[in-house]
Write a structure and sequence with these properties.
Blueprint: E1 20-23, E2 28-29, E3 34-39, E4 45-51, E5 59-67, E6 70-74, E7 82-88, E8 91-96, E9 107-114, E10 117-120, E11 124-125, E12 128-129, E13 135-138, E14 143-146, E15 152-159, E16 167-173, E17 184-185, E18 190-195, E19 198-205, E20 215-221, E21 227-228, E22 233-237, E23 245-248, E24 251-252, E25 256-259, E26 264-270, E27 278-282, E28 288-289, E29 293-297, E30 304-315, E31 323-335, E32 343-346, E33 349-350, E34 355-359, E35 364-369, E36 378-383, E37 387-390, E38 393-396, E39 407-415, E40 424-447, E41 453-454, E42 459-463, E43 467-477, E44 481-486, E45 489-493, E46 496-500, E47 505-515, E48 523-536, E49 543-548, E50 551-554, E51 557-561, E52 566-571, E53 579-583, E54 588-589, E55 592-595, E56 604-616, E57 620-635, E58 639-640, E59 646-649, E60 654-657, E61 660-661, E62 669-674, E63 678-681, E64 685-688, E65 697-707, E66 715-728
Parallel strand pairs: 2-12, 14-22, 25-31, 34-40, 42-48, 51-57, 59-66
Antiparallel strand pairs: 1-3, 3-8, 4-5, 4-9, 5-6, 7-8, 9-10, 9-11, 13-15, 15-19, 16-17, 16-20, 18-19, 20-21, 20-22, 23-24, 23-26, 26-29, 27-28, 27-30, 30-31, 32-33, 32-35, 35-38, 36-37, 36-39, 39-40, 40-41, 40-43, 43-46, 44-45, 44-47, 47-48, 49-50, 49-52, 52-55, 53-56, 54-55, 56-57, 58-61, ...
């Protein structure tokens, strides 16, 4: 045949189409066969290649050729990978032998020669599936004992090898082992991991008493049906003993009972739990009795005794240490006796006397108790005018003077034993009297004079520095202590106080007494009254302030330039405020001073007079007055007077005196000018000797002085006179 001894020979094919490799299944179970078919429309020879899982290269496994309606192989014997290979026209089919897990993800492809070049088909990757066959549930016990509400995480389910990865689900079967349809899926409380195709799942659950006798199991599946775990675990929920109940003649006994001393009774104690608890009694005489029933005689001198029933069990969880558990119920037993003499208290203070002090117009509460068992069933108070109150507490809404009478208290109790038929009554009577205490009230301040004058106005007016006498009085029991306050500071004690005032202030009187009602901590009561003091005083020496040149000045010597205007204001501190007069009359209006276009004849002394009327609370109206003066100094410019013209002979002498009227201030300066520019002298007189023709012309004398007006800039003022000198020749 053509293919003999031709392992690497190629058939020449003119088309370029690649071969196609298909399988009869996308995946195959382990130990099952798989059919691969390679097709090409013209090829008569194909080559098979396998790339084992994990390798990066493929190897030639078999060459198949179809000629003369028969298949030929190179090598002649089909490799161990295949169970059989057949040819059919353009199709070449090989069946892989039953596959193992190791063949998972092996890759197969085929090729044909096209123009002497190998052309490969697509690759087929083997997917080997392994059905899971069992699931193992641990712990390997039929029953697990658990504690309620305590998380447990020791339940594990392990699958057999499986591919795809096995999936484990958990179920809780509540008392229906033959019916799985109502089982609860508990997988949400589990966590799983897969290693080497084996899945392990752990269940974390918190059992409650509801889970008692339920069963838990797991199912495993990887697509080939559910496989149930090798066992189901029955849940035994342990529980501590319930609080014991005590019964008498099958009736429930409350935790507190009353018995007659030396009486006998039989009691039963019951408790439930898992496991069932054991019962024992602890009696008040120290005995321990292991039994559900007990017969006891109450022979004791104590007022109260106690009997305890104990329920004990041992909790033994599957995965944990043994836990001893106990619950108890105590039975309190009261021994009955009649009332004793009452003991009374106000709040927490015991009353040692039946004569009681209480505060007027305040609520009063006193509680009296009598020692007995059972406690008194009735307290009855008899108040003045036969008024009745029930209860251990005497309550008076507001203490009044009429309460100074005797009060009676009767105490009754009923000794009603739990098992006795008859009720025995006991009683006692006691008596109380009251003294009424009064806090400080009706506090008043008065003026002490020839006749005491009550001060009922918020503000009084007094003269500054003049002594005033005050008194203070209030109603109280016990009597009050008095303190005087000036500007917030205590300055004197007693009912009387003398003081003189300098500034406005507030005076006050505090009256304090100490109330010590029975059974209550002593406390001070006080009342406070105050009066505002308005201190009046006559005017102080007025101050005069003047406005000149837009400035303000305070002075006793006011200098103003003649022809200017001046205004001023007179102020004086007084209480009440002052009214003002001016001298000379009409030199001012109210507190204002004004002169327009001042003239020199207005120089002189001016006086501002301040007056006020002081309306005192206790001394009537008192007038006050004060005054201040200032001197008005009118400043004036020096005045140069007329000088006539002169005619003089050449080479003679000319003397001229500059006539003037002095200004204010009178100091005067002189300046002589010839021809308006040449300064020729600075004295009042000038003298021209040996007159020359050049001396002819106009001459000017200037007189000036310096004025320093109050509040203004210093001013130089001048006036001038001009004359003509005519020089002639003989």
């Amino acid at each position: 045949m053509w293919i003999d001894n031709c392992y690497y020979c190629f058939e020449y094919i003119s088309c370029t189409q690649a071969p196609v490799l298909i399988s009869n299944a996308t995946s195959v179970k382990v130990n099952e066969a798989l059919k691969l078919t390679c097709t090409h429309p013209t090829a008569t020879v194909v080559r098979w290649f396998r790339q084992p899982a994990g390798n990066s290269t493929s190897s030639l496994i078999l060459v198949m050729g179809y000629t003369n309606n028969a298949c030929a192989f190179v090598p002649p014997t089909i490799p161990d990978d295949f169970s059989t290979c057949v040819c059919s026209g353009t199709g070449f089919t090989c069946i892989l032998k039953p596959l193992k897990i190791i063949n998972h993800e092996d890759k197969w492809k085929c090729s044909v020669s096209i123009n002497t070049q190998a052309t490969f088909s697509n690759e087929v990757t083997l997917i080997i599936t392994v059905p899971v066959v069992y699931a193992t549930l641990t712990p390997e016990v039929p029953v697990i004992s658990v504690l309620p509400n305590v998380p447990l995480s020791y339940l594990h389910c392990v699958s057999s090898v499986g591919r795809p990865s096995p999936n484990i689900t958990w179920y809780l079967d509540k008392l229906t082992p033959s019916d799985y349809s109502d089982d609860v899926d508990f997988s949400v409380y589990s966590s799983s991991s897969t290693l080497a195709d084996v899945t392990t799942s752990s269940l974390t659950m918190t059992p409650t008493l509801y889970y008692q006798d339920a069963r838990v199991y797991c199912n495993v599946s990887n697509g080939f049906g559910q496989v149930m775990s090798n066992r189901t675990l029955k849940i035994n929920v342990l529980s501590i003993p319930t609080k014991p109940t005590i019964m008498y003649n099958t009736a429930f006994v409350p935790s507190n009972i009353s018995v007659i001393q030396h009486s006998t009774m039989t009691l039963e104690c019951a408790s439930s739990g898992n496991p069932a608890p054991s019962i024992s009694w602890a009696t008040f005489n120290g005995s321990l009795i292991s039994s559900s029933f007990i017969t006891i005689k109450f022979s004791t001198s104590n007022e109260q005794e106690q009997i305890v029933c104990r329920a004990n069990s041992l909790l033994d969880p599957t995965n944990g240490s043994r836990i001893p558990a106990e619950n108890t119920t105590a039975l309190n037993v009261n021994i009955l006796y009649p009332p004793s003499a009452p003991s009374c208290q106000i709040k927490t203070f015991p009353i040692l006397s039946n004569s009681i002090r209480a505060v007027f117009n305040e609520p009063f509460t006193m509680t009296c108790t009598s020692k007995s068992n059972p406690p008194p069933s009735r307290y009855t108070w008899t108040l003045p005018y036969d008024v009745k109150q029930n209860g251990s507490q005497l309550s008076i809404q507001r203490m009044q003077p009429s309460n100074n009478f005797r009060y009676t208290l009767e105490v009754v109790n009923e000794m009603n034993a739990t098992l006795a038929r008859d009720v025995v009554y006991g009683n006692i009577t006691d008596y109380y009297t009251f003294e009424i205490l009064y806090p400080v009230t009706n506090l008043s301040i008065y003026h002490r004079g020839q006749a005491n004058q009550h001060i009922n106005i918020p503000t009084i007016s007094v003269i500054k520095g003049r002594e005033v006498s005050f008194g203070c009085n209030a109603f109280s029991n016990p009597a009050s202590r008095y303190s005087w306050i000036l500007s917030g500071v205590i300055v004197a004690n007693g009912t009387k106080w003398n003081i003189s005032f300098v500034d406005n202030t507030i005076i006050g009187c505090i009256a304090t007494n100490t109330l010590d009602p029975t059974g209550v901590e002593a406390r001070d009561t006080s009342s406070y009254s105050n009066v505002s003091v308005n201190v009046l005083f006559a005017p102080e020496a007025p101050k005069c302030t003047f406005q000149t040149c837009e400035t303000y000045s305070e002075t006793k010597h006011l200098k103003v330039i003649r022809g200017h205007s001046v205004s001023g204001r007179c102020t004086s501190k007084s209480e009440p405020g002052s009214k003002f007069l001016w001298t000379p009359v009409n030199s001012g209006i109210d507190d204002g001073f004004f002169i327009n276009n001042v003239s020199r004849h207005q120089s002189g002394n001016y006086t501002c007079i301040a007056n006020n009327e002081m309306h005192t609370t206790f001394d009537g109206i008192i007038n006050g007055t004060n005054q201040s003066s200032f001197y008005l100094d009118v400043l004036a410019t020096a005045y140069a007077m007329f000088v006539g013209n002169y005619t003089v002979l050449l080479n003679t002498t000319l003397s001229v005196t500059c006539p003037f009227t002095a200004g204010n201030p009178p100091e005067t300066r002189f300046t002589w000018f010839h021809g308006n520019t040449l300064t020729i002298g600075s004295q009042q007189n000038i003298s021209l000797s040996s007159v020359k023709l050049s001396n002819e012309g106009y001459y000017k004398c200037r007189v000036n002085n310096t004025m320093d007006p109050t509040g203004c800039a210093t001013q130089d003022e001048y006036t001038e006179t001009t004359f003509y000198v005519d020089v002639q020749c003989e």
